[in-house]
Hints:
By secondary structure, chain A is α+β, with helices and mostly antiparallel strands. Chain A folds into three domains: 2-183, Nucleotidyltransferase, domain 5; 190-230; 239-322, Gyrase A, domain 2 (2-Layer Sandwich). Chain A contains seven helices and 15 strands. In chain A, the strands form four sheets. In chain A, strands 1-2-6-11 form a four-stranded mixed β-sheet. In chain A, strands 9-8-7-10 form a four-stranded mixed β-sheet, with no helix packed on it. In chain A, a hairpin with a 2-residue loop joins strand 14 (308-313) and strand 15. The longest helix of chain A is centred in the middle third of the chain and has 42 residues, at 186-227. Chain B is an alpha+beta fold. Chain B has two domains: 1-55; 58-134. A four-stranded antiparallel β-sheet of chain B has the order 1-2-4-3. The radius of gyration of chain B is 32 Å and the shape is rod-shaped. The model of chain B has no long low-confidence stretch (mean pLDDT 91). At the A-B interface, strand 6, helix 5, helix 6 and strand 12 of A face helix 1 and strand 3 of B.
Amino acid sequence: xxxxxxxxxxxxxxxxxxxxxxxxxxxxxxxxxxxxxxxxxxxxxxxxxxxxxxxxxxxxxxxxxxxxxxxxxxxxxxxxxxxxxxxxxxxxxxxxxxxxxxxxxxxxxxxxxxxxxxxxxxxxxxxxxxxxxxxxxxxxxxxxxxxxxxxxxxxxxxxxxxxxxxxxxxxxxxxxxxxxxxxxxxxxxxxxxxxxxxxxxxxxxxxxxxxxxxxxxxxxxxxxxxxxxxxxxxxxxxxxxxxxxxxxxxxxxxxxxxxxxxxxxxxxxxxxxxxxxxxxxxxxxxxxxxxxxxxxxxxxxxxxxxxxxxxxxxxxxxxxxxx
Amino acid sequence: xxxxxxxxxxxxxxxxxxxxxxxxxxxxxxxxxxxxxxxxxxxxxxxxxxxxxxxxxxxxxxxxxxxxxxxxxxxxxxxxxxxxxxxxxxxxxxxxxxxxxxxxxxxxxxxxxxxxxxxxxxxxxxxxxxxxxxx
Lengths: 323, 135
């Protein structure tokens, strides 16, 4: 009981939904429409091919696979799409072939914007219940013969009236028109899209890994800061390093120059009487040096391009070596 | 029938791909920069650690200097020395040449920050000394 109620409720919803939009009948000979609102379209039999067929399969999916070969010999050349729905009797199906491009062209010719089209249906699925011929324009009528909705000239049959779609409840046999299939090869496009998606996934994965690596390096950097008790900024640490490097360089120079001084081979009456290391220079006093014969003392300094000054006072040579 | 043109989706995918490649490229550049910066920090910290250890490790420097100054050879040199917060001052009016050689070889062969060093010859075997070592 509750299931029946639910079905009824759903049906009412569908009807309400369908009634929200106007439904029009689209034929090659239809006049142009002046429609700005959303609509449903019922295709005239002139815009599709239909067959009622009995097949030894039960599912619509299996039938769909067979459709191109069933229609193969009957259709004129063109790019066709196919559709199918079950007939009332077991193993019987209504099968359809239609040209998306042709339908789209007619829709455009009749001044209908494709953006306003909610759904497209076959006359076969929506109007197979009409009990006599229905006039659709001055020249044509719709008629059901052997369960197939067909288009016949007006004068052939006596019509009961004009086709009225206002109270029609549309079925679920809506079709999708491939708007772009005639422009592009959809299969190639799908393959290309899949390749693109895979590439995007690949790139994003690499991006994620790279970001992770960056984070790891940041973590390592923090570990180094903690381990060596560094100052918070690189600038401060560089400045400290500069200070210590300066001290180190100066101390190396002091030791190097003192080593030169202490290894000079002085003459018999010559001797070092004073060594003074200050912040910027080393002062050495050599006693008993002839001012004209200083080569053996200054040779090493000259060779190593060390800056120095010489002064003579009494019997003493005063050497100032810049640090 | 308001369907999106599949080409728009392809264009969107291409744009997403280009965007992700751009981001990846930037991330790779960032990674290079971060690695470079890490190398710099690593080198800097190693050098800083070595230099700080050599010139400003107060405990280590004080201990080694006390060891040198307490050596027997220097006992007769009447050395006067004062340890301050960040320096050591050594002074003597007269010391023999062997003690001076011993002291100088110890000081010069280690990484001490010699701020002042003044040696004045008094005779062939005697000299005066004034020295300041900082840390």
